[in-house]
């Protein structure tokens, strides 16, 4: 369902533009009476150069929304664009190239190669693609994330927070149009989590990046410019300029509409 909030979710400014958008985005798992409707005709704009957080009760569709916007999952109906490129209907090879060249990813698990140094992990996706990183941009990212003296270390020699910083640098290395972060602080202690959130904030404010973060943590969401709230596969509300207290209060409204089953993502709830 398209709601007034869904029509205004981007927090768009006249000069900012849209990093990604969806119209009528629907995702169902299964068929017939056992079908689970994870996303229900969602209309959403993701603003360029802004930090957008996505929240909702377990099973509300937030991870599914991210996966569909990033081209990691197919849609049942509707359309999705990255910038001006419609990605619904692209062949898998074209989607792979688009994700590699135009999107950065951060996940709860760091997904670092243990035998490679931090520097090698950061540039690995570009190395696989046969692309050379822009050295000036890479230096800027490394310095912004405080990794200059850790580039020769392997993951086992780094703390959890440092490993997630390497993962953040890897997501930023190709200067993507959009970064998707799925619970990026989920495996970190509070101090390391705050560091990573601060770096994502800096990536937007100082490096001009666009970030979409799925989170269950009101404190993490408070680092964003805009929070989108999902319930039963629909965007039901939004909160610009969030604080942790305001996010927590808003989330209380949606606990009563918690979906009894998950999103259908291999047992992971979104």
Polypeptide structure, described:
- GO terms for molecular function: ATP binding; ATP hydrolysis activity; transmembrane transporter activity.
- One of its GO terms (cellular component) is plasma membrane.
- The chain is an alpha/beta fold and 270 residues long.
- It has one domain: Rossmann fold.
- It has nine helices and ten strands.
- The protein has helices spanning 4-7, 62-69, 92-102, 118-129, 135-144, 160-172, 190-205, 218-221, 244-251; strands spanning 18-29, 36-47, 51-55, 77-82, 85-86, 103-106, 178-182, 211-214, 226-231, 234-240.
- The protein has a six-stranded mixed beta sheet, sandwiched between helices.
- Helix 4 packs parallel to helix 6 (160-172) and helix 6 (160-172) packs parallel to helix 7.
- The radius of gyration is 18 Å and the shape is globular.
- Mean pLDDT is 86; it is low at 1-14 and 259-269.
